[in-house]
């Protein structure tokens, strides 16, 4: 994707980026090369197309880069860090089965109350 195309998508979705070698935004989950089981689960949950933060930040995280993402409540930020974490765990399990005591692979700190309960349904 050309820089001009990336800039047009970012402008359309009100995405502001800063840094070097920022991966292009991707408009669908299939282009992010998620495994079929993850794509099916997203579809089953009614998550068909990435939100603005997902279409830019998932490619960044999947590229192994650090980032700070800011979005309003309800923009599905949780998916941005949960799906890559699940993918790392799946990759580790494929390479060598996970034995008891070898976890965790990640730590998710979340607010208490309704917001935490809502995200647990994913």
From TrEMBL:
Record keyword ATP-binding present: yes
GO molecular function term, any single one: hydrolase activity
UniProt keyword list: ATP-binding, Helicase, Hydrolase, Nucleotide-binding, RNA-binding
Record flagged with keyword Hydrolase: yes
InterPro entries in the cross-refs: DEAD/DEAH_box_helicase_dom, P-loop_NTPase, RNA_helicase_DEAD_Q_motif
Sequence ranges assigned to domain DEAD-box RNA helicase Q in this UniProt record: 27-55
Location of the motif Q motif: 27-55
Origin: domain of life: Eukaryota
PANTHER family for this protein: ATP-DEPENDENT RNA HELICASE DBP3
The protein's name in its UniProt record: DEAD-box RNA helicase Q domain-containing protein
Organism listed in the record: Capsicum annuum
Lineage: Eukaryota, Viridiplantae, Streptophyta, Embryophyta, Tracheophyta
């Amino acid at each position: 994707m050309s820089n001009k195309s990336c800039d047009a998508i970012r402008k359309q979705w009100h995405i502001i980026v800063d840094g070097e070698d920022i991966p292009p935004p991707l408009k669908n989950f299939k282009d992010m090369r998620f495994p079929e089981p993850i794509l099916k689960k997203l579809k089953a949950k009614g998550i068909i197309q990435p939100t603005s933060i997902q279409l830019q930040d998932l490619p960044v995280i999947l590229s192994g880069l650090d980032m700070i993402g800011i979005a309003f409540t309800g923009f599905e930020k949780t998916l941005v860090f949960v799906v890559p974490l699940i993918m790392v765990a799946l990759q580790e399990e494929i390479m060598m089965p996970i034995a008891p005591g070898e976890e965790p692979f990640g730590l998710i700190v979340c607010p208490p109350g309704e917001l935490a309960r809502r995200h647990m349904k994913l």
